[in-house]
Amino acid sequence: MAPKVKLPALSLFVGWALVPFFALPTSGFAAQAGKSQPAVDPAQVNRDVRQGAQNLDADINAAINNLQKLTRDVGKLKDQAKDAKKKADDAAKAAEKARDAASNCKDEKDKKKIQDLINQAKAKQKDAQNAKDKMEKTEKDLRQQIKDTVDKVDNRIKDLQGQLEKGMKAAKEAGFKDNSVMMGNLQDAGTMLNRAVEKARQEGTWEGGKYNPANEGMRTKLEKAQNEFNPKIREAKEGNDPTESLENADKFIKAAESYLNNCPPRVGAVPQRTVPQQPTEVAVLVDNDQGSNVCVDGGDASALGGQVLGSGPGGTIVNTPMNPQTVERVAKEKGLRICWIEINYCMIMTPLTPFRGHVHGDHGPGKSIHDHDAPDPPLNWGVIPPATVIRVNPK
Predict the structure, then answer these.
(1) Of 342, 305, 340, 341, nearest to 321 (Cα)?
(2) Which of 59-63, 95-99, 265-269 has the lowest mean pLDDT?
(3) 109 within a domain of the structure (yes/no)
(4) Which of 178, 192, 334, 383 is 20–30 Å from 251 (CA)?
(5) Domain for residue 224, yes or no?
(6) 3-state secondary structure 82-106
(7) pLDDT tens, 103-139?
(8) Which CATH number covers residue 351?
(9) Domain containing residue 84
(10) What is the arithmetic mean of pLDDT over 72-90?
(11) Does residue 79 form part of some domain?
(12) Does residue 331 share a domain with residue 226?
């Protein structure tokens, strides 16, 4: 009979903390002659767990080396991001060109040229979207490979822990006593695994206010290598986000198609009058996107793009997709003199007061709120309107 020895309590490293694995029972049954062998061989489990504990650092080092190889995909991501941004910018410029041409469409001859510009813009938009999708897939695949590399290490540890649990259960079912050599070997294998995992998770030390990584475990180094990818990926995409340009391309293409559907425009001349006249019911076609209405009383108003709503002695009113801040910058660059800017919150409809389709009285007390930042043009613009070209919605 083997001498009785006191065995250390077994614990396994679960979730990166040492916790009790399970309590060994204090009684069992003796192995009986002719009893079938268990599906799990405790002796083989003992060998496998010990070998796994010895190889743990080498397995984690292999994972770190794999992460280093993945850095080449960061360079690939950067190239794809640059390509997507350039294509998106080109698409936005082509779409803006189509919109500007469509806003000045005069006849059927113009329509064919403008449709060609719209088709070219759509082709560039599709190409840019494909480039963006390709870039996003590369990033998704890269992040998944990084995760899989780290998960493989953690799953290996969990697998060794699971093998040990099954081995001890099989040993008990085979009738090995708590104080048997087999049970002692399995407990020792568990202790080796715990120590290997604890060593792999060990942090460096702080000495004199400085961090010394000399004592870092391999699992800690793996985690640091994983975390280094986040700034690398962010830097690879920095300044190369194609989203805004793609959104602009889509907006300009829709505006161009809207203008094209209203070509050739209907023209109505509003005569000069010295007394008020009941407005005529017409609808003015204006982009439904929020942009700006701008009064230009000096310089070429077409430099702002968009649609001219009206012009006369009081200035030229332009509806542009630019926001007020962009209008101010462009006006300064182009040498335009701006008399006012307002955010375009709503469709310009009639009864038509010149330059803007609002009846000023409709915004009085108890009525709808006036949604414009800038002051209204003088009321006398509604008394003596200039001649105006109006684009109307087709019936």
Answers:
(1) 305
(2) 265-269
(3) yes
(4) 334
(5) yes
(6) HHHHHHHHHHHHHHHHHHHHHHCCC
(7) 888 888 888 899 999 999 999 999 999 999 999 999 9
(8) 3.30.70
(9) 42-237
(10) 93
(11) yes
(12) no
| pLDDT band at residue 241 under the 50/70/90 scheme | very high
Cα-Cα-Cα-Cα dihedral of 354, 360, 362, 367, to 10°? 150
Return d(Cα 340, Cα 357) in angstroms, integer: 17
**CA 107, CA 173: separation in Å to the nearest integer?**
93
- Are 131 and 232 members of one domain? yes
- Quick check: 347 pLDDT over 50? no
Of 12, 22, 41, 7, the residue nearest 173 (C-alpha)? 41
Neighbours of 145 (CB within 10 A): 15
* Domain count along the chain: 2
Q: Stretch 267-290: mean pLDDT, rounded?
A: 43
What's the whole-model pTM score?
A: 0.55
Are 82 and 229 contained in the same domain?
yes
Return the beta strands (E) in the chain as ranges: 11-14, 17-20, 205-207, 210-212, 291-298, 307-312, 315-320, 337-344
Contacting residues for 69 by C-beta, under 8 A, at least 6 apart = none
Amino acid identity for residue 4 in this structure: K
Measure the CA–CA gap between 170 and 43, rounded to whole angstroms.
10
- Asked, for residue 205, whether it belongs to a domain, the answer is yes
